[in-house]
Design a protein that fits this description.
mainly alpha
Length: about 70
């Protein structure tokens, strides 16, 4: 018998935010996309030591961002 939660993949589960610095850096990068583009926003996140997984999730899959 399948439990309803068993059908969720790991991207469907939201974890509470603990790193507010990264949140602020990511928000800054996202806000800059219209003026500098996605590539430069990604480069900024890399330069700010945001983990690649977080950068990709937030820039490419906005529906997976944490609230």
């Amino acid at each position: 018998m399948n439990h309803p939660r068993a059908q969720l993949n790991r991207h469907d589960i939201k974890h509470p935010r603990t790193d507010f610095r990264t949140r602020d850096v990511v928000n800054q990068a996202i806000a800059s996309i219209p003026s500098v583009g996605l590539q430069r926003a990604a480069e900024f996140l890399s330069a700010m030591n945001v983990p690649a997984e977080v950068a990709i999730r937030t820039l490419v899959y906005p529906n997976r961002r944490r609230p």
